[in-house]
Prior knowledge:
Chain A has helices at 34-43, 87-91, 106-122, 146-155, 171-181, and strands at 7-9, 15-28, 56-65, 68-77, 96-102, 128-134, 159-162, 208-209. By secondary structure, chain A is of the alpha/beta class. The chains are: A alpha/beta, B mainly alpha. Chain B: One of its GO terms (molecular function) is GTPase activator activity. Chain B: Residues 65-253 form the Rab-GAP TBC domain.
Amino acid sequence: MANRSGTAQRPNGQSQGKICQFKLVLLGESAVGKSSLVLRFVKGQFHEYQESTIGAAFLTQTICLDDTTVKFEIWDTAGQERYHSLAPMYYRGAQAAIVVYDITNQDTFGRAKTWVKELQRQASPNIVIALAGNKQDLANKRMVEYEEAQTYAEENGLLFMETSAKTAMNVNDIFLAIAKKLPKNEQNTGQGGSVQGRRLTEGNTEPKTGANCCK
Amino acid sequence: MAKSNYSKIDEYGFERPDDFDYKTYDEFMSHYMRTLTRRALRWNSVYKNRNFKKNNTMKRFIRKGIPANLRKTCWMAVSGAEQCRKNSALSYQQLRGKIENSQISETIKIDLPRTFPDNIFFLNEKQLPNMLYNVLATFAHQNSEVGYCQGLNYIAGLILLVTKDETATFWLLKTLVEHLLPKYYVVTMSGLLTDLDVVNDLVQKHEPTVHRHINNIGMPWAMGTTKWFICIFADVLPTETVLRIWDCLFYEGSKILFRVALALIKLHKLEILETTDLSELMTVFKNMKNHPRVIDCHGFMHYVFDLSGSLSSRKIDSLRLKHTK
C-alpha cells in the first residue's frame, strides 16, 4: 500500500526512481481558461463551454521526468475578484503556481500581474511561478503582445508560455517546464505515506510522458 | 437491466453522468414514486386552496417534500418572496427595464453558456439562458452591494428549471440573497466566510475524530465546503436532494445548511477516516453525490432532521457572532 520510501513500482514491475509530489495552484481572472488548461492537462479534453468554477476544484496528474515521477496536486481556483479572500488558502504551501491571462483581453494581463505580485509577497519564497497567456488559438484577436508578456516574465523570473487549452498547444509543456524547475529533493518525496505506486496506473492519473520520460 | 427504464436525461434536463448508478437509482425510485404519490394526495387534500400559511402543519409537510407542481407557489409564499413582490414599488418588468450595458452585464453574459452546459434546456435552447440573463442582470442592477457573484448563476438557473417562470425566479433569488443568506454574495463574502467557520466549529463539536483527521491531512475546511454554501448544494448533490433541501431553506432559513453539512460528514465518516492524503479526501467530498443515502432524498432528509435535533438557532446565532467578519 502506502509507499513511504519514495520509490514506486512501475506497472511492468520495473523499479522507478523517486516520486515527488507538488501542490500547484492556478490563479487568474474569470474565464481566462484556468479550468480548461487543467482539463486539457489531466484528461486531454476541451469543452467550449467549461462550467464556471465555484470555490475551487481539485485534480491530480502525474508526469514522468527522467527517473522521477512528479505528481501534481492541482488547485484550480475561481477567478472572480470577490473570491480573492479565499485564494490564500489555496496558494499557501503551494510549490508552484500558474498565473493565467487571456491574450485577447488586456485587463486579464493586468490582473495576472497583480496575482504575481501577491504570490511574490505572500506565497512560499521558493514558489515556481509560470505565466500562461492562454487562448493562443485566438491570436488574430490578440490584445497582449507576446514580447510584452515575455519581458514582464523575464523581469520577474517567471516561466512564460502562450498556451491554448483548445488546441493543446504548450499545455503539457508548461506543466513539464514547471516540473523541471521544481527541486526534486527528499523533502518532496513520499510525505506521510501519501505517495502510492498503484495510483500511477489508475484512471485519469495515468502518467503523462514528458520529453525524456519513461523510456 | 434497470438502465433501460431511465432516459439519459433526467426530469430537469440534466444529462446523467456516464458513471450514473442506475441500479441504486432504480431501487430508490421504486419506493420514492409511492411516496411522491402519497404526498401529492395529502397536499391536495390539505392545501386544496393553495393557501400556504406558515404553521406547524406546513413545516411538517414541507420537510416531507413539496410536490413538484406546487414548488413555485409554495416557495413564493413561505419564503416571503411573494410578500416582497407585493411590497415592491416597482414590478419585476420595471426593474428589468433598468438593465444597462455595464461591466456586470458583460460578466453575466460570459457565464451564461458556462451555466449547466450539461443541461438540455441551457444547451440547446435560447429561452432559458435569456431568462437567466434577465434575472441575474436585473438582480445585479437593483442590488449594487451584491451585483453579480458567480454561483448565483447556478442558483437562479436551478430555480428557473423548477419554476420556468422568470418573474418568480427573480423574487425568489432576491429573497434568498437578501434575506435568507445575508452577506454571502457581497464583495467581501463575509457572511459566507462566517458560516464556513461555523461549520468548522460544529464538526469539531459533533464529529471530533473527523475534524482531527481532516486537520491532520491539512485540508482547510473551506476547501471541501465552500461550494456547498455558495451554490446551496446546487451542482454538488443530486438535483432532487437539492430541491428537498431548498424546500426547507425557503421555509426555515439557513439553519438547514448546517444540518445538511453535518449529515454529509456523518454519512461519510468512515470513508473520511480511511483517507490518507488530500487527494483521497477530496475524492470522498467529490463523490458524496453518489452515496445511495444521498440519492435517496427522502431518507436523506429524515436522516438530516433526526441527526441534528439539538442544533438550536441560538447556538447557530452565537457561533455566527463569534465568527463575524
